[in-house]
Specification:
alpha/beta, 4-stranded mixed beta sheet, elongated
Length: 160
Amino acid sequence: MTTDGFTTCLWFDGQAEEAANFYVSLFKDSSLGRIVRYTGTGPGAEGSVLTVEFTANGQKFLALNGGPEFKFSEAISFQIDCADQAEIDHYWDKLVEGGGEHGPCGWLKDRFGVSWQVNPVRLSEMISDPDREKADRAMKAMMAMGKLDIAELEKAYAGD
């Protein structure tokens, strides 16, 4: 195994290049890499995109146009740890543009069906607090939200 870590392969049905461009436009430290096209042996149409290598937020990905056989599910999601409410608002809005879906508890799906968790960094501190009453209040507040609101989470955590 190389020391470069893992590459996450995302299976699309003809949207690999569009998705790669979208993710690269959204995150810092991102770039497109090699694009591989189907040859005459298929199974895709000759010249159409087979794979797109890209980096998003410093992480390596491969977008694969594999066909309609497999769909994304919430069983796999990407978690974005946000420093402040402005970051939460930015990713929450941008990721659902063009047909995504808002979900509960900071979760959403982008227009490609990929699931994301858009969370404040502070949330994990709150819900893991050894003071179980504080942690429970923060968890209860989070469970009632769609997009997470840091100020409201902090109020619940503090017991206000």
